[in-house]
Amino acid sequence: MSLTLYHDRFRCTGDLAAPPEMVVLHGWGMHSLVWDEVMPALLAHFQVTVVDLPGLGRSPMPGGEYNLDYLVQHVLAVAPARALWLGWSLGGMVALRAAHQFPQRVTGLITVASSPRFVAGPQWPLGVEPKVLEAFSELLLEDTEGTLIRFLSLQCKDSDTIKQDIRTLKELLYFHGLPARRALLGGQEILRSEDLRQELSQLQCPSLHVFGERDNLVPVGVSEAVQQLRPAAQTAVIRGVAHLPFLSAPGLFVAACRDFLQDHQWL
Hints:
By secondary structure, this protein is of the alpha/beta class. The chain contains 11 helices and 7 strands. It has a single domain, classed as 3-Layer(aba) Sandwich (Rossmann fold). Helix content is 40%, strand content 14%. Strand 6, helix 9 and strand 7 (234-238) form a beta-alpha-beta unit. The radius of gyration is 17 Å and the shape is globular. The N and C termini lie far apart (39 Å).
């Protein structure tokens, strides 16, 4: 019997007879509490299932190779039968893969500070240099806690709310204890190796892709590249924020999502 990921399903607070379902996924090194700032706005219109990815937050580490399909498999096991999926960074890649491979399960997709290809490469200059992730992976083996803090700080760099963002992330980092090293290394390998550009172009469901204007990990230029790969996609760029739009500017983030949700009659 396989281990089940930590998940919780929160009831919609709005006056809706049959509220739609939403699945919410966090990014590398974090857990589902990172969404707390925008959760009330989401719950006004949806029943929300939050999930901690394997080895992160409150989730155990099921056996198997820690790759993108492994993450999708274990999230699908606890997700509603049909739902809109919202994913940040690594969680956005999980949601994108699920939407492509299991279109009957994913009615819509919102990715936040996420890219179909996280690292730079041929015909894709819009990413982190591979050597940067390789260096982080090496440092993780020597100093897991210090490397985590440095990576989380990089996510906040250049944001108008950098001090507040770093403080919040550090508090969240220790809330459930440090993540499993295998989850951190496996997650970085996914970021380093996966290329979901073709999967993005083949999506069947409506999609919104939200970016931070000053993101040092997912450059704002990814917004235009996404629209070229999938002309039907909607994009939004939030000014003055880096890799954490929902934390740095929750009001603007919710407004961007609301426009998309209204366009496709979820609201």
